[in-house]
Amino acid sequence: MTAIDDEQAESEPRNGQDAQQRARMRELEAELERYRQASEDALQQLDWCIGYLHGSHRVPIARSLAHNRAFIRTRLLRRPEEPVPSQRAA
């Protein structure tokens, strides 16, 4: 065996491992995107609830949910705070 043959023999398992790692990374990125989309959907539903409660004159409950929503966006999702629907309309 030559030095080139040895190098090729060593690189085959590495290439296989690299391909497995790339496939695993793609899986994890897809899973991350699913969770990100689910969190955005949940925040949109929460926005709707806040707007509904505000429109139904249940302002204290809407205010409390808006506070929770702001906490979720800023602390858990590490995103800037957005105004809730009742603040946008005002």
Describe this structure in words.
The longest helix is centred in the first third of the chain and has 53 residues, at about 5-55. Helix 1 (about 5-55) packs antiparallel against helix 2 (about 60-75). With about 90 residues, the protein is an all-alpha fold. It has helices at about 5-55, 60-75, 85-90. The protein has one domain (about 5-90).
List keywords for this structure.
single chain; 90 residues; mainly alpha; 3 helices; 84% helix; 0% strand; rod-shaped
Low-confidence stretches: none
Provide the helix percentage.
over 70%
What can be said about the biggest beta sheet? none
Order of helices and strands: HHH
> What's the Cα radius of gyration?
24 Å
Average pLDDT, all residues = 84
Q: What is the total domain count?
A: 1
Q: Can you count the helices? A: 3
Gap between N and C termini, in Å? 79 Å
- The rough form would be described as rod-shaped
Number of strands: 0
β-strand amount: under 5%
Structural class: mainly alpha
